[in-house]
Fold:
Amino acid sequence: MEQAPPDPERLLQPAPLEPLGNPDAGLESVVVEEADRPRDEGSGDGTMTENNFWLKKIEISVSEAEKRTGRNAMNMQETYTAYLIETRSVEHTDGQSVLTDSLWRRYSEFELLRNYLLVCYPHIVVPPLPEKRAEFVWHKLSADNMDPDFVERRRIGLENFLLRVASHPILCRDKIFYLFLTQEGNWKETVNETGFQLKADSRLKALNATFRVKNPDKRFTELKHYGDELQSVISHLLRVRARVADRLYGVYKVHGNYGRVFSEWSAIEKEMGDGLQSAGHHMDVYASSIDDILEDEEHYADQLKEYLFYAEALRAVCRKHELMQYDLEMAAQDLASKKQQCEELATGTVRTFSLKGMTTKLFGQETPEQREARIKVLEDQISEGEQQLKSKNLEGREFVKNAWADIERFKEQKNRDLKEALISYAVMQISMCKKGIQVWTNAKECFSKM
Amino acid sequence: MSPRPALAPTVPRLRSGRGAGAGLAGEAQDAREPMGTLGEAGLAAAAGRARTLGMEGECPAPSARSSGLPAGGAGAESPGGDAPLPGSSGSSALLQAEVLDLDEDEDDLEVFSKDASLMDMNSFSPMMPTSPLSMINQVKFEDEPDVKDLFITVDEPESHVTTIETFVTYRIITKTSRGEFDSSEFEVRRRYQDFLWLKEKLEEAHPTLIIPPLPEKFIVKGMVERFNDDFIETRRKALHKFLNRIADHPTLTFNEDFKVFLTAQAWELSSHKKQGPGLLSRVGQTVRAVAFSMRGVKSRPEEFMEMNNFIELFSQKINLIDKISQRIYKEEREYFDEMKEYGPIHILWSASEEDLADTLKGVAGCIDRCCKATEKRMSGLSEALLPVVHEYVLYSEMLMGVMKRRDQIQAELDSKVEALTSKKADTDLLTEEIGKLEDKVECANNALKADWERWKQNMENDLKSAFTDMAEESIRYYEQCLATWESFLTSQTGHHLEEASEDQF
Structure:
């Protein structure tokens, strides 16, 4: 079956870099922050793995899907599908590939991997997973998760996901990702041990929470709007496409009835009999040709769906930025107010409201020693606050720079992929038209011989 | 003359006369003078029973085939003869209702009346004869060597409102070089009832000839009103076909009632109509016909048994094909409706994209063009295939009627023969009657046999044509779509190659 880009055999080529421990050489677009590198278990030695795994070209494929039964967290029996992930390393010279790793994973593990990546790489537009449940299906197609066609399409989608991660200049180096491909047992525990869930900002999950950002970054605002629009337009397109597919199915299939009736009718006709019979056969061919046509179109729909979900990833990056900005502004505000308090205490004027001030007024002045102590505390806090603000600012700037770099990368990828998808759609239409011409030309010949 | 809603001649569309206020007297249909004066001579000839030209009581040689066969209509002679099947078009409407009821779809016809774009399609219709002369190219009636000397068109439907009723009339223009016509051109207005009358008269006069079918009185299922434009247009075309089929029929074309129908003024027609068997005698005939019908079936000769079998099977199949074809039309329509929405979404998307905008607009353009091609395909279907198939559905009902009538004629003979053998009545009288009846049966059978061959030939040609046209429409449709997508692809891959070469580091 046709694979959405990237193609299944795509070889991973990491950027030319020094073998061990120096991940940032050669990748101009990324500046690795020293402060914040939560990519591994916290050992701090960088994300690169010990061996020269990434130097060789590798192929990743999700080659099989299998139904399994097991026990879930509540010790109830459940059925799920497991997917076989195979990794091959390709020898440079002769192109032969050797199977290096092979293990089974289920969808929930993919989800865990992705959540981990989302938290640890907030500035990256993380590739999306294929849909959990079948949506936008035209009604002849099954919406059942266990349906073999759905499972097959999901297998392809999962493979696509892994290839996307593997070909991302930053994500590909992540150790957890590497372990996902290579360490079957205990991988879940390893991920959880990184403590990434603690880092996850619960505020991000609060979808309704709005953050009043005083100085929003215009670019991110625009990006957010773009993400919204992309999501809205693609889902609209997918919905209408499904309806169009439905109708087209109807048109083709009804013609199949001609086949049967012509055949029956030919029995009573002497001269017309043969022509009718063979014309009927062509009507049957016509009617059944729609199945393949629509199956191909389903892959096109999957390509669009990927970008529908990518839009969500875009919005996630914007949201993280928003949060960062909000935190920054809050910190700045807090610092400013503390400074003012300090000043007031020093000069004796009270401009800002403070509880201490009030109680002082009510219950009497404080002693100069007390005041001095308070000023000292505030000064410490201010100095700390200034440090924090400085680092937050730096963090913010780094985030913006890195995020924007990835967004540019994403944009180019999106334009390439979608253009390719649209062109493949045209190719599909052309093929459908050619088939139609052939069938009807044959039918016409039969009719004219009647 | 009082003003009436006039219509543009090129588009036979109906402007409803309801509420127009101008009430018109019932039968005053003609605003215009006929091209030539009919005169009293013509009227006199039209009076009385239908007589086939110079062939009264004669039976043609049985071996005569389809070409130029003037079958003798024996109906003129026997007052106690067969009655035309009462309300045959009524029964056909009933059958139609049954067929449609089997269809699970509810809103077939709502689709027709709701959508304005369907009207637009009709104005593109090529099958819209504006003059009898243009008919020369359109008529493709088969192997008859006759040079066509009678050209008829049906157009300009107009609605008329009276205090009692509202009805539609159609303009009928006849051009002819025949001597028996007083003039070479006639223009009259007729309403559906008049067509019905004509059909009944023809059936009466030629009980075992295959009379062309009339379009149904009204469609039982659905909310289509009699004054819906599509309905009127479909009916107009069918009526046009009806008259032309009669004109092309070697015997029917010379029928006197037919001539009157084509040429008489409104008042002349009504007075002509009044001459004929009264209602009571017609009732009597009907009763006898029912009594005889069963008998006729039992003694049916072999060849007519075969014919009957064919008719039954054919009827089944053609009805199915009719249903299927209608369903295809409906599915295509729904496909078209969805497609209309599909293209614009791509345009909407292109608004938020830069690099992709061109490609998206290109796709939108292709989809829109394919949409138009679908519309054309649908219109082709409704022009070429649907009316023809439907006409043969009606024909198959007509044929069953013809078989019945033949059986009745035979049954009459058989009953007399039986009476003779049982010596129940006056032998001499019976023998004479039997002699006449035997002739009648032989004529009827021969007429039917000959007409049957002709009908079958027509049927094969018509259906073959219709299906071939359908295939052609489909080929054209796919060719158009192919061209549009291929040109899009060329434009894109051309750019694609350019971009690829730019992107190479």
In short: Chain A touches chain B through 51 residues (CB under 8 Å). Chain A has two domains: 30-91+99-199, 201-450. The first helix of chain A runs from residue 107 to 120. Strands of chain A lie at 57-71, 77-90, 97-106.
